[in-house]
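Entry:
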Amino acid sequence: MSDPRLELTPSPHIKAPDSTPRIMWSVVGSLVPVVGASVWFFGPSALLVLGAATAGAMGTEWLLGPEGSLRDGSAAITGILLGLTLPAGLPLWMAALGGVVAIGLGKAIFGGLGQNVFNPALLGRAFLQAAFPTALTTWSVTGGSWGALRGDNFALPLMSPEVVDGITGPTPLGLMKFEGQATPVSDLLVGATGGSLGETSFVLIVLGGLYLAWKGYLNWRIPVGVFVSVAALSSVFHAVDPTRLPGAPFMLLSGGLALGAVYMATDMVTAPVTNGGAWIFAVGIGVITVVIRYWGGLPEGVMYAILFMNALVPFIDKLTQPRVFGARTAQEGVG
């Protein structure tokens, strides 16, 4: 006869099927095709910049994070995403410094994984944009000799790099904003454009997002909300001024919109927890992006849009928090 005594074990008794490291490394895996495309288009410089940014992020995590935190994969994701927002010709020490800032100021200072307010990779990118604006807006073009290094990857720290004009050029957003030249949609779709490492992989980024959504690792409402709001708003403005304001296809396929919508805005820590909040968050990103691209001083606005909406997440969560059945608000009182 079996022992009828009840055995009690410590909580938790219900466990999620996927751990944090498994989710994080799955995200890293989904980025492998995007990284491969960046290397295909920009050559070994892409690997160098991505490696420097990732090394800076993981090194800082090793120094400042709790023991074993490197194994969860979050620092690797931060470094790779940061690297994908950078130009291929950036000096490697700048890319590494961006990784240090992303983890040090974007994550560790808030208490580590799960406590940060802003997306760490974008915070690192914003720091580099403010500190080294010329280097961050010197874009490499695709094509040319695959094995050639681009820009000044090995420029010494704090030295003014000498840009190699033969392998640099404007981005589609810059051409449209400052020269009124629209890049063909076919070129945007296949990645035959200049820009950051992650601006030439729209199809691969979307495929990676579909995989993560299928696995349940991202809230699909956020990228869908960003894409739909950008498409809708840009279509309206393009109808008003078709010669100066580009339409939906150009706005969706150019710049860092895909990378930002799929991989940055969907960060579980810095995005709203409710589905209603996710829609508000996504539409806010889309609207701000369109406004900055059309009327801002810079051709791209995705980074600032996401960081601004990150700051509003606590208010969005409070606004969209479901009311507990039977609970009363402060205005209703208890009398």
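The chain has 14 helices and no strands.
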